[in-house]
Amino acid sequence: MTATVALSPSPVVQKPTSIVTPRIIKGSTTDDLSNLSRILAVKDTSVIGLCFVWECRVVPPKQPTFYLCESCSLTISVNDICDHMRSTKHHSKYLIRQYPQFMYWAEEELIPRMSDVLTDYIADLVKGREDSMDAQTVLLSEECFEWVRTAPFAEALNVVQRIKEEKKRTDLPLIVTPEGEFKPPLDTPRTHAGILICI
Questions:
Q1: 3-state class of 106 per DSSP?
Q2: Which is deepest, 59, 109, 123, 134, by most CB within 10 Å?
């Protein structure tokens, strides 16, 4: 005769769930002369609107620098930035934004060539006022660099502007989720000990 022993179900042992700490990516600004200013100096080219250009560099430097032009709301590659800064289209947008008193005629229906000549003439007059201006340089980690490079312009600009503001207090760590997804700053960031936390 076989004895049957009723087995009680064994207790389920739950393993403690590990807390995954989000990776932190840093962004910072530098007061060094921008690479763009160096390039323009070598090409002996003076431009306008340089102070509204953001030079975005990756640290360590593994990818080419790119630029955000606030005047034109464009993300521009390092290969195209010099041509962009010399373009009549950039001159026009920058002058309308910063020197509207010189661009009162822009609403008139002029022959396109005449409009371009006037715009470039005014740009040449303004260049003397802006000789000492430089692009704003932002140093980004690889993840933040890639996010800013591919983000819609307004979101990318928002991130670099926040980095500049936070740099006044400390280096800026931005939060990446455990899944590796970069989270851009919210409209109202929370700060803790001078650190911008993006969640």
A1: helix
A2: 123
Distances (CA, A) of 123 to 39, 76, 79: 20, 21, 23
- Residue 22: count other Cβ atoms within 10 Å of its Cβ: 18
Asked if 123 and 48 count as a contact pair (C-beta separation under 8 A), the reply is yes
SS3 (DSSP) at 161: helix
What is the Cβ-side half-sphere exposure of residue 114, based on CA atoms within 13 angstroms?
6
Position 26 confidence tier, pLDDT thresholds 50, 70, 90: low
Helical residues (DSSP H) of the chain, grouped into ranges: 35-42, 81-86, 88-98, 112-127, 142-150, 153-167
Residues 50-85 pLDDT 10s: 999 999 999 888 899 999 999 999 999 999 999 999
**Cβ-proximal residues to 106 (8 Å cutoff; 6+ apart), any chain:** 92, 96, 115
- What residue type is assigned to position 162 of the chain? R
Each residue's pLDDT tens digit, 148-158:
999 999 999 99
Backbone angles phi, psi at 40, to 5 degrees: -65, -35
Could you tell me the strand order of the sheet in which 74-77 lies?
A: 74-77, 66-69, 53-58, 136-140, 24-30, 172-175
Structural domain boundaries in the chain: 24-197
